[in-house]
Amino acid sequence: MKIQKAAVIGAGVMGAAIAAQLANAGIPVMLLDIVLPDNPDRNFLAKAGIQRALKARPAAFMDPARAALITPGNLEDNLKNLKDADWILEAIIEKLDAKRSLWERVEKVAKKTAIISSNSSGIPMHLQIEGRSEDFQRRFVGAHFFNPPRYLHLLEVIPTPKTDPKVTETFSAFAQTTLGKGVVVANDVPGFVANRIGVYGIVRAMDHMVKAGLTPAQVDQLTGPALGRASSATFRTADLSGLDIIYHVASDLGKATPDDEDFTLTPAFRTLVEEKKMLGDKTGSGFYKKTKGADGKTKILNLNLDTFEYEDQGRVKVAAVDAVKGQPLAARVKALYAAEGQEGDFLRGVMNDGFWYAAKMAGNVSNRLQDIDNALKWGFGWEQGPFETMDTLGVQTVIANLEAEGRTLPPLLAAMKESGRDAFYAGDETVTPEGQPTKYEAPYFILTDLKKDATKVIKKRAGASVIDLGDGVLLAEWHAKMNALGEDQLRTVQDAHKLVQDMGYAGLVIGNQGENFSAGANLPLILAQAQAEEWDELDDMIKQFQQVTTSLRFSPHPTVAAPFGLTLGGGAEFTLHADHVVASAELYMGLVEVGVGLIPGGGGTKEMLLRFTDMQQPGQQLGATLLPAVQRAFELIGTAKVSTSALEARKLGFLRDTDTVAMNKNHILGDAKRQVLALAPGYVQPTPRQDIPTMGDAAIGAIKSALYGMHEGGYVTDYDLVVSGELARVLGGGTGNNRTAKVSEGHLLDLEREAFLTLLGKKGTQQRIEHMLKTGKPLRN
C-alpha cells in the first residue's frame, strides 16, 4: 500500500486544491470530472480546476511548475486509468446517492491494493460504502481536508468499522510525512471532530452575542487573538467559510444530534442566508463587507443586525481585550474568563459551552483528548484546544462554574471532579475519555516536551537555549520575540559549538518551534547604537555576527539548519552557511536588508555571489559567465526577493539541490537531527574559500548603468541608488580593479561589513529603519 500515484475525482475548489497539494509533494495525480454536454473539450472541468488552483490567492501551488504533475481527464474516457492509482479520493457533490454511484464505478476499475477515500465533510463514511465488497470496504478510509489544503494543517482521517487498521496506519503516515498534514483520527459520526465542535461554537457564540447585546465586531475582538484564536475569530471565519455552509452544517447536525446539543441558528443568521442571500466572501457581503473609501483605500464595513445595513464603525474598542494587551496567553485567558459586565458574561457563556461540549464529545468524535485539541488548533488556528484551555484555568474551577450554571457534567468532567485532578495533561500523562490516567502520545517531536526534563536544557539564556536532542546531537534554540537576532542568540550558538567539542557531541542543529525561524536582526538595537555613533561597538558586533554565521560552515562538526516560516535577513544568513538545510515546505526566506537601507552584512552577500559564480559553465571565458552571476545576486538582494515556499527558495538559490524539503513543519527538527548523525562519521572541517572570482569596476559599472536607467524611468528612488551602489561594490569584489581577480571569503566579508557601517551612518538608512519599526512597511526615500 505504498502511495506513489494518486487520483482526485471532482475538480471543484477543494478537489483541485487537494490535487495541487499532492503535486506540491511531488505525487503525480489524475484530476477527473464529468463531461459537460455541448463542450468540445471533454476535460474542460478538470483543466478549469487546474487553472483555478494556479490563480488561487493565497497560492495553491508551492511552485507553479508542479501543475505539470496533474493530468486532467474525465469520468467517461479516463475512468479506466484509475487502475494506476495507489490512492483515489473523491471530492464531488455532497449527495449520498452520487457518492454511492461513483464508488460502484470505481470498484470495477481500481486495483486491489488502492486506498479509497472520501473528502466528505458531513456524510458518514460507512453510509457511502454500503453495497460494496468487503475488500473495497477494508481499503476505504475517510480523508477530510480543510480549505485551503496547502495552509490548513488539519486532515481528519476517518476509518469505518470495516476499515483495515493497516490502511488507516499507512494512509495516516503518508498524510503526515508526504502531504505534511496534522492527522487526527476521527470517529465516523456526524461532523467528525473539528466541524462538530467548531460549528457548535460558532452557533452558540451567535446566541450568546444576542443575549449580551454585542455586535459581531465586538465578538470577533473577544474571540480572536486575545483568546489565543485566529484573527478571523468567529464571524470573519463564518464569512470565509460561507454562511450557507455554516447554515447547512448546523441544520444537518441539529437533526443528527441529541436535543441537548443546541445547533439552533439565530433568526438574524437565518435571515442573512434564507432571505438576504448574504453568504459571506463568496457573495461579497456577510457579517462584513469590503468597500473603497473616497481615498481609494479598502475599508471594512460592519453589518448592523437590527437594520441589515452596513456601517463604518471605525476601530471597535472592547474594554476586556484592551485590558489584557501585551500579557502572555495564560494570563489573557484567565483575565477574560473572569471579566465583568456584558463582555465577561458573553465570554463565560461561550467558553463554558465549548468546555462542556468538548468534554461531552470525548470518546464520541474521537477516542483521545489530544485529537480534539489538535483538531481545533490545526483546523481553526487556535493556540490552545479546549482541554488545554481548561488546564490553563484549572479544571476544577471550570467544573464549579458549569455546576453553578446548573449544567449536568459529562462523564469525563464528572470523573475529573471525583478524582480531584486539576489538569487533563500532566507531564507524559493524560486521561482517557472516561477520565482514567493514560500515557500521552505526542503526535510529533515537541520541543517543549523534551525540555520538561531539566537535564535536557544544557545552557539557557533569556532569548535562547542549548538543548540535548539525544543521540549525541545538540540544538541551539532561539525563543525571543519573532526570534530577532541579538547577543543572546549569537552567544548561544557559540556556546553550543563549544559544548559539541568539549563534550564529544556529534554535531549541532539550529532551529526552534516558534512561530518563525527568525525575522532578522534586532533593528531597534542597531538603530540606537548608530544614532549614538557607537561605531567601534557596531563594527565589533557585525564582526561577531559574521563569525557566528560562518561558524556553521567552518566548525569541526556538522551543523544543520532547520528553517521555516519567516527566515529573513540574518535568519537567512545563518541558513545559507549551514552544512545542510532541512527546510519546511512553507519557507518565506529572503535577504531583505535593502528595505531598511542596508545590505546583508552577515555573509549573505558573499554567499549568494559565491553560489552563483560557482554555477559558471566550464570552458567559457570567465568574464562572460561572471556578469550574469553578479547580476543574479544583485537582483535577488537588491529587490529583497522573498520565497513563497521552499521550492521557490531552491529556484532562487537560497537552498541547494542537496538540501532537504520537509512537507511537515513539525518534522524538521527530527529530520535535522538525523542529518547531523548521517554527516558526523568522517566529517572533515571545511576551510574558507580563497578563489572566488570577481569583476571589480566592470561589474560595478554594469550594475550602475542599469540602475541609472531604472532611476530615470522612476523605478528606483534616489536613496535606492545609494544602497544599490554599496551592494554593487561588494558584489564586484571592491573598486579599482578592471579585470577579473580572485578574492577570499574574508575579503568579501570585510567589504560587507564596511558597506553595512557606511550605510548605517547615513540619514537615509536611519530614516528607513525608523519607518519600518514604526509602520512595519519600507520607506521609499
TrEMBL record:
PANTHER family: 3-HYDROXYACYL-COA DEHYDROGENASE FAMILY PROTEIN (PTHR48075), 3-HYDROXYACYL-COA DEHYDROGENASE-RELATED (PTHR48075:SF7). The keyword Cell membrane does not apply. Coiled coil: none annotated. Gene3D superfamilies: 1.10.1040.50, 2-enoyl-CoA Hydratase, Chain A, domain 1, NAD(P)-binding Rossmann-like Domain. Residues 480-605 form the Enoyl-CoA hydratase/isomerase domain. Residues 5-188 form the 3-hydroxyacyl-CoA dehydrogenase NAD binding domain. Residues 191-289 form the 3-hydroxyacyl-CoA dehydrogenase C-terminal domain. It comes from the Bacteria. Pfam families: 3HCDH, 3HCDH_N, ECH_2. InterPro entries: 3-OHacyl-CoA_DH_NAD-bd, 3HC_DH_C, 6-PGluconate_DH-like_C_sf, ClpP/crotonase-like_dom_sf, ECH_dom, NAD(P)-bd_dom_sf. Keywords: NAD, Oxidoreductase. This is 3-hydroxyacyl-CoA dehydrogenase NAD-binding domain-containing protein. It catalyses: a (3S)-3-hydroxyacyl-CoA + NAD(+) = a 3-oxoacyl-CoA + NADH + H(+).
